[in-house]
Structure formats: structure tokens, C-alpha cells
Amino acid sequence: MSRTRDKNPVLAELAMFAILAALWALFFWRALTPNPNDHVTFEEGDFSGQFYSFGAYQAARLLSGEIPLWNPYATAGHPFLADVQAAVFYPPRLLTIVLSGLSGGWSYEALQTEAVLHFLLTSLLMYAFVRRLTGSRLAGLLSAIAWTYGGYLTGYPPLQLAVLETVTWTPMVMLGILEGTRDGKLRPACLALSGIGIGLAIHAGHSQSGLFLIYSSLAWLVYRAYVGRMRWQDALGAWVLIGAIGVGLGAVQLLPGMEYLRLTTRSGLGFDSKTGGFPFYDVAQMVIPGIVSLWSPLYVSVTGLALAGLALAWKTRGARFWGITALVALGLSFGGQLPIYHVVYLLVPGFGLFRGQERAAYVVSFALSVLIGLGAVALESYWRSHADDPRPILTGLMLTGLVVGVLTGALFLLWLKPEDDTWSEPLSKVTFALFAVWAAWALFKRLTGPNGPAWRITLVALIALELFGVNMGRGFEPIPAGERPHLPWILVDALRDETADVSQPFRIDGEWALGGNYGTLLGFADIMGASPLHLATLDYYLTYLPRYEVWELLGVRYLFAWDLELEVPTEVLGLEETPRGAISLHELTDPRPMALMMYDVWTVPEDGIALELLRDPGRYGLDLRNTVVITGEEPALELPDEPPDGAEVRFTTYAPEYVEIEVDTPADGVLRVSEGD
Question: Which portions of the chain are predicted below pLDDT 50?
């Protein structure tokens, strides 16, 4: 493929960066503007409920000079560092924390700005990758626009921040492999760039997306070695180098993360729990976004899809690899509905750990975006070697997209026969996008000449207008960051007032009022929390035990509920009307302390038996308040026949990362602390 040549290549590249920066600023202008009347923030969801609160705890600990190892305010004690989605050592997060510390402290805006800047970063990286792959600035520009503003990246990844920040580094990893194997020669410095990208992706915290990245980059390396006629020993050495750097940089996160994963609910999930994926009809959203679901992760614009098809039809160099990659990833995204996932589940390490196979749409979107750039190269090559007027081909591309879009939409509407306004928003988005395509063509159709800028401007305008028309503003709400999160603040303030003079630590059950990780944000030791990774023991408690037994086991003293009368005696401390109904704040009349000396010790051989005893303690004569069940060998203690008088347990310090307990006991016993059950 020929490379673009001009008199001022540096200025030309800076112009491309400026265009991408301008498009980014336009797409996110409402998130960036300081005008409070126009400003928007990410809607309530995983971003606000999980990542914002996690970031607040992370910032508080790091700015206090502590590594956030353990969070006492979520899930009855949460191994913070071991939860990969906490992104404890992710460099951009550390930068956000430092800058926020210098500018007034951690805030919703700080984390949102971090997320939005990742779009600009991945846009520039994608341009660099495809520009170097094809030698074409147009190809790099089109691929960057399709990848950055396509349906996948602008869908749920910003709200599930770990996904966005993990996949951001994909172009960097692919670029390092491209340059590290150029002309069939190994360049370790360039391969190191890929290793750094993988290390950054590991720290960003979404393991499933990281797994897709690792296998996709491995396939890309194998392909590059094949076309470059490299020795297999050299290809293996290249992958060892990339892996060593990536794993080495990510080891501080990987090692505790793998240990934690073994103790979570994921370790007990079977095949049936992991096979979910797209329904087959979701493919229709490659043409008409929003017609099936809220998000359209397979959408890269109709014009872009036509260009990708052109790259494959004209057998552009490299198109076959990216086409196969997109096809394989699409097959995996359907989960257990297709045999390909069964094969991968059985044979490929790592795939048996994760649910939600529709996340393979990430690889589909990336591969299609590369194909869009290759399609642009095919057009450039054709028009350089033909004197024909370029307008017929461009018109054909546009009309093909319009016809396919209209026909697909009509067929689905006739089949589904909607009787309400369910389809009004997606159809209005599509109508706007198609109108924008037509308007762009009307504006540029009189500018001709294969060597002129008209057709290039037209392609950029078509794809940008389609994607911006459909995806711009998705996931945002015009709510000031200062009003995040939405909580029953009257009850929250009542709980603060009630607990201001409480000398000993306690837990709360905030499920019915707080949700997410807002206990962490507020400094209440909640037994609930938001993270895909939950300790299996806690999950068992919440799934199989009556709620009042959970309160007993975990040392809960305060709780929120819809009812004024509960199964155990409580005092109602407050009541607040919310959009979901009236919520009441309760204090248990006889709460169990978070730490107790136990003198009645039952020993069982394994955790499963201990959990079964808890499931029906009355049947087995188990006294939850005075008996502790442990697994393994009998403790070497001389336990008394009856609990002695005078035993006392006091928390002298209960703070993040540090707990100190004083115990006075007249006899041997077991100290039972409700922390990290």
C-alpha cells in the first residue's frame, strides 16, 4: 500500500490530530462545558454506584499515604486491592486523584473527565495504528471516528468505566505489534509498546475485555509473523516479550486478583450461567441502531459497513484477517447459541471464567473499524488508477446504505408490529442520521475529481454525521454533578446524627435505601455493595438465610426497610417518602456486636457443611449469638463448659486499613469478628 506523501508531513499529521480533537470536543461538549444550564453528567448506574464510590475511597486512602488494601464500608468488608475493577494502580486514575487533590478533592466531575478523555486518547491511538497500517491519513481518520463514536464504545462502556478504560489501549497494543514485526524483522522496543498497553489494560480492571484483547493481539501477531515469513521461534519470542512486560507490569494487580477470584461467586458458576449473549436478531442493529435494545454495540454506521464490505470484496491486503476476526468475535457474542462458544469454552484458557458473551462486540467493533479504513484505502487505490468520475461509486455506497437501512427497518416493523411508542426514539435517531447522510451528499456532490478533497471530506462527513446523530448524548442526563447521587438524604442525615456518639463500630444494611457502593462514599459499613465479584460466603448468606440471621452474623445495627414492623424488634428512627415509596430507618433492639468472644466452638471438615448449618441453625441446635463454626482441625484450646463471666471485647481503633481490638477473657475462646465473612 502506498504511503501519503506531501511537503509538510508533520503539519498534515497535526491537522489530523486537530480534526480528531475537534470531533471529540463536539461530541462531548455538553460534558465539558462549564455552563451549568448546558452541562450534563453520566446517568445513574454503574458509573455513579460503583466506580465513583470506589474512586472516592481510593483517592482518600492514597492521598492519606495509604495503599487501599481493605475497604470496611462495602460487602461487610471488601478486599479492595484484589478487586480488579477498583483499578488501584491504574496510572490515569492515579493522575486523576493527584489532580483532584490539588483542585478541591475527589468529585464526580473528576472521574467523568477521566472517562471522557479516554475517548480522545483511544481516538488518537486508533488513528496512529491504521495510519501506520495503511499509509493513509484518510483511512486512519475514518477508522478512528468509527471506533471512538461507534455504538460499542459510546454505549455502556462509559458507565461501566473499567470496560472503557481497558479497551482504550487496544490500538496501542496492535500498533506495537505492527511496528515490531514490520518487514518481517523483530523490533523489541516496538513490541515493548504492546506489552505496556497490555499492562495498562490489566490495571484498568475489566478482565473479560482484557482477555479478548490478549487473544486478539496474539492472533494479530501470528498473522503478522505469517505474512512477514518470520520464523516461529521469533514469533514466539515476540509474544514472550510482550507477555512478560504486560504481566510484569500488571502483576501487582493480577496476583491478588486471581486469589480473590477463587473466593468469589464466579468460582462456582457452571456452563449454563456463562452462555448468555446476543439474540440473533441483534445483528439488525448493525444497520438500524436502537431497533432491538437500548444499546447498539455492533453499529459502526451504514456508510462504514459499506466500506468494510468493499475492503473484503476487493480483497484489500489485511482485510481477510480483520474480517475473520470480526466474524469469530460475532459468533462468540451469541454465546451458547452457537457451537463456536462451546469449543472455545472447552479449549481456550480463561473463557470459562466470564459471563455476558455479548461483550465480544468489542472485538467486532474494533475489527470493523479497521476494515473501514481498509475500505477507504481500496477506494483511494481505485481512483488513483482509474480516470472515472468517483461520484457513481460514492453514490452507490450511500444509496446501498439507505436502501438496506430502510428495507431492514420496514421488515422488522412489519414483523414486530409495535402498538406503542417503543420504537419512536430509535427510529427518530435513524431518520436523523439518514437525513444527515443525504444532506452531506447534497452539499458535496458537485465537488468532483479523484485527486481532490471532495470525496474524502464526504466520507468523513457521512460517517461522522451518522454516528454523531445516533450516539451523541447517549448515557448523559442534565443533572449537576453536585446532585449525584440520588439518595434519601433525610434518612442519611438521621443515621449520621444517630451514630455520631456510637463508640463501637457497627454495620448497616443499606440495600433498600443506598444501593451501589454508597456506603463506601458515606463512610457507613454496609453489608451491601456493587461489584461483579462478591465473596461466595456473603452471597450464600444473602441468598439462603433469612435477613434477620444475616444481620446477626454480620453485626448489623441499623437498616433501611420498606416496612415499619420487621421480624425482629427494632426502633424506627425516621421515615422518608421517595419516588419508590416510603423508606424507614431502623435500629435493632438487640444488635450483635461486630466482635465477640466465643466459647462454644463447632469444628467441621469443610465450608459447605458450615454453611449448611447456618441455613437451618434451629434444626442443629446452633446458637448464632454464642457459637462459632470453624473448618479444619480442632483448635488447641481448653474451652470452658459454660461461657465465663467478665469477658470483654473493645474496638480501640476501627479505620480503613487498620483495626485494633482489646480482649479481656478469663478463659480460652475464639474471637469472632464480623469482617470479610
Answer: 1-4, 414, 444, 446-448
